[in-house]
Amino acid sequence: MIFDNKTGRLIFGALFLFLIVLSLSFYFLKQPWSPRVLFFPETVTGRLVGERRFLPPRRGLTANVELYVKELILGPADPLLSRVVPRDATLQSVLSRQGEVYVSLSKEIVDLSPDAALSFDQAMQAIASGVLYNFPHVKRLYLLVEGQLPGEHYADGFTFEKKLLK
């Protein structure tokens, strides 16, 4: 069966339109990356600045917060920004129940170098601010060191302070 020019163009146009609709459907139905903002201090001023990253989506709040904190521990991509936590710090666990999130970090988070851009309190607040900014449905956040609250000052969790963010 041989097609004439008009029929061939019609079939080609219909196939092309079908592929465009199919591509747009896949694009809008399943987005492969979730945009997140990680906050790091500027090297000069020490003020927290957002660095946007696209992270693979995970199922559930626990897995998403875990991935976010691991990315934060890796440090900034921008050389003009400095780390929030020491390079040796690790994430031990993340647990979430009914809007309350518990993030346990290793004891190395306490061992800040003398040239660190943030104090321990500021580093904890930077982590908390980033988590609360990216996951607004978190009602209460607890940052733990080796599974323990690092003092009475942190017993009520953290509040999001917009003034720290640029």
Core attributes:
three-stranded mixed sheet, 166 residues, 33% helix, two-stranded antiparallel sheet, elongated, 3 helices, GMP Synthetase, Chain A, domain 3, 2 domains
Q: How would you summarize this macromolecular structure in one to three sentences?
A:
The protein is of the alpha+beta class and 166 residues long. The protein has helices at residues 5-29, 61-74, 120-134, and strands at residues 34-41, 48-55, 91-97, 100-105, 140-145. It has two domains: 1-30; 34-164, GMP Synthetase, Chain A, domain 3.
Describe this structure as you would to a colleague.
By secondary structure, the chain is of the alpha+beta class. It has two domains: 1-30; 34-164, GMP Synthetase, Chain A, domain 3. Helix content is 33%, strand content 21%. It has three helices and five strands. The chain is elongated. The model is unreliable at 159-166 (pLDDT under 50).
